[in-house]
From TrEMBL:
The keyword Glycosyltransferase does not apply. InterPro entries: Znf_C2H2_type. Residues 67-94, 96-121 form the C2H2-type domain. The lineage of its organism: Eukaryota, Metazoa, Ecdysozoa, Arthropoda, Hexapoda. This is C2H2-type domain-containing protein. It comes from Manduca sexta (Tobacco hawkmoth).
Length: 121
């Protein structure tokens, strides 16, 4: 499969990704291709990100887990791992809170990096 034209292969440097997150109604970007022409990454818009989260909530893999973080839509088999994860939501850990999953960070750059979890596929 031939590579798409360069205009359809946006480079997704972290800085570009973070700037795009500031636009709440941004539509999803065209896919980012690797050198083999395979889709490597898609940057999601807010609507698509929310649809992905809804899809995960209804996924059997998530529903079968014993311990669930409904804020992050993550499932865990072990209680200890779940408890460790839930510490990420402790408001005393910092001043920067993810608007999607309420994870808390001490540094703004950590929060910006975290947004990639939600807005890339």
């Amino acid at each position: 499969m031939p590579l798409p034209p360069p205009a359809l292969r946006p480079s997704a440097t972290p800085l570009n990704i973070y700037i795009r997150f500031q636009t709440p109604n941004l539509k999803s970007s065209p896919p980012i291709y690797n050198i083999l022409g395979e889709v490597e990454k898609v940057i999601l818009g807010k609507q698509d990100m929310q649809l992905e989260r809804e899809r995960k909530k209804n996924d059997d893999k998530y529903l079968k887990k014993d311990y669930k973080c409904e804020l992050c839509v993550l499932g865990f088999d072990l209680k200890e791992i779940f408890k460790k994860h839930m510490k990420k939501h402790d408001k005393n850990k910092g001043a920067y809170v993810c608007e999607v999953c309420q994870c808390v960070y001490a540094k703004q750059r950590s929060l910006k990096k975290h947004y990639g979890v939600h807005y890339t596929r």
